[in-house]
Design goal:
29% of the residues lie in helices and 28% in strands. By secondary structure, it is α+β, with helices and mostly antiparallel strands.
Length: 371
Amino acid sequence: MKRALALLVAVLALAASASAAAPHVTARAWLVQNAATGEVLLRHNERARVPIASITKLMTVLVALEHVSLDDVVTVAPEAVGVGGSSIGLRAGERVGVRDLVEAALIQSANDAAVALALHVGAGSQVRFAGLMNAKARSLGLSDTHFVRPDGLDVAGHVSSARDVTKLARVAMNRPAIRAVVGQQRAVAAGRPLLTWNDLLGTFPGLIGVKTGHTSLAGWSQVAAARGRGLTIYATILGSPSRSERNTDLAELLSWGLSRYRVLELVRPRHVYASVETPYGRPPVRLVALRPLVEVVRVGRPLVEEVDAPLFASLPVRRGQRLGEVRVYAGGALLGKRELVAAAAVTKPGLAGRVGWYAERTAGKLLEVVP
């Protein structure tokens, strides 16, 4: 048997109507995605190949950590000094730990730290390191992406897309070392104080990262991740006209994305989902779920409950005996299922009881046919 979950659908429909309008965003491209399912909730020019500025450093650090340890020490090459833009003022010949360079590159968005890492891993060649970055991009399926520099400064051919940036951020956040760093507002690396460029850290509830970027060609860009109850939403904005607009629009995209979902108890323990008839005039067997089913559900998406249970059960039935299953679907996709078991035992009557039941039933039928 199937039935619509009318109450749940009504709740979700109300939530959807209350916040259905998507935010108005001023930028070249943007994308909002559910991290767990990969479902894209909102998109605009998500495949446009545009500059991404210091968001590049997510790939720089990801590639570097595949070749070196956080405890390794780097001797800063002269080429890394005075790169321009944001920096921590590295000096040629200075010995700095990889951990410090990673923190400087991701928190302070330090270009000199990113280049120092690249030269160390690339055996003195930024070109060689960019080759490693592009190979990693191909392996991740980032088909809109091409890297030329490890720091993300403007240069011809250094591009990515909102789709690719979001995927890169999700991959990077799977690395505990990266995830821990991008959530920090302040730190100290190589004796230098670091301050994040991520203005939403500490101001947007549940924000856990990830990376900002800005150059004259890229505009104000950022990929961010925020954790709500039961899910994480990623939002990417590329090419916003100002820092304040980027922050406002990104916060609205994250809020909107989180509002698209609710955590609901789809199957309730001890709730009777079916009654199964039994012979000999014994009471029906009530079927209940022992465990709840709690899932994150997209608002406005109809839910259907399907109960699979027999019409008739042979006796005896033990308490807790599995006799069916309840399944919940959203848009045809299975959200989850739970076993249905007998809420109480139903015994089989003895021989005398069975004979008496048959005799009574036979007598009743005879009376029906007597004129």
